[in-house]
Amino acid sequence: MRFTSGGLGVGWRVRAIRGATTVSENSVEAIREAVHELLDELEARNNLDPNEIVSATFSVTRDLDATFPATIARERPNWSNVPLFDVQQMHVEGSLPRCIRFLIHFNTPNPDVEIYHPYLRQARSLRPDWTLAQAALAKKSMM
After folding, report:
1. What span, in angstroms and rounded, lies between the C-alpha atoms of 57 and 10?
2. Each residue of 49-65: pLDDT tens digit?
3. Which residues make Cβ contacts (< 8 Å) with residue 128, sequence separation at least 6?
4. What is the pLDDT of residues 91-116, one digit of tens each?
5. Cα 91 to the center of its chain, rounded Å
6. In the CATH scheme, what is the homologous superfamily, with its name and number, of domain 2-142?
7. Which of helix, strand or coil describes residue 24?
8. Under 8 Å CB-to-CB from 59, ≥6 apart: which residues?
9. DSSP one-letter code for 95
């Protein structure tokens, strides 16, 4: 989607960021820690302004039911007005347990912005291709 803002000819585009993490146990404290860690990484690596977020969907595996990740996200500065949604991830036998994922859509004036997709803890195994690419991107940005 592209549109112009205020007749200035600025092209905006909706982009998406994916990410995931795991928790050690099904508790409010463990889920809170993991969600904040994941969103800290998301914001730090993507320079993401919550006011540009269109929506965020969190999914959890069926073994996590102590709290909603969206409830934790609403605790963050500037996230109270972000449309948030929680769903249960489809169960597939042998899949990664105690996993929290997100899909976030955001508006950006830079349609070519490099996106960092944070996969933390045991969730790194879900996207080893992105984990390697993200490590290279992080190393490049530190130089």
Report:
1. 28
2. 898 999 999 999 999 99
3. none
4. 999 999 999 999 999 998 887 888 99
5. 20
6. RutC-like (3.30.1330.40)
7. coil
8. 86, 87, 88, 89, 100, 101, 102
9. P
